[in-house]
Amino acid sequence: MQIGANAVVVKDVPSGAVATGVPAGIRFPEVPATAERMFQDPAMWI
Fold first, then answer.
1. Mean pLDDT of 2-31
2. The CA-based dihedral angle spanning residues 29, 10, 3, 36, taken in that order and rounded to the nearest 10 degrees
3. DSSP 3-state assignment of 33?
4. How far apart are the C-alpha atoms of 21 and 9, rounded to whole Å?
């Protein structure tokens, strides 16, 4: 979890998310194309 500068967080931020803005918006960063991502969605590698 990461919290941006001056973010107003009014609820829980999930693990691996980034909270920015007023009020804080939750964003999930892109996962790089690695072997770990292949196991999350193997169809994209076919």
1. 85
2. -30
3. coil
4. 9
Q: What confidence score (pLDDT) does residue 34 get?
A: 63
Two tokens at 26? 């939750």
The residues pairing with 46 across neighbouring beta strands, listed in sequence order, are none
Q: Which two tokens stand for residue 15?
A: 């693990």
Burial of 14 from C-beta contacts in 10 A (0-12 / 13-18 / 19+): exposed
In one-letter notation, the amino acid at residue 19 is: A
Angle at 44 between CA 38 and CA 45, to 5 degrees: 65
Smallest CA-to-CA distance from 15 within 6, 26, 25, 31 is with: 26
Question: What pLDDT, in 10s, does the model give residues 34-44?
Answer: 666 666 665 65
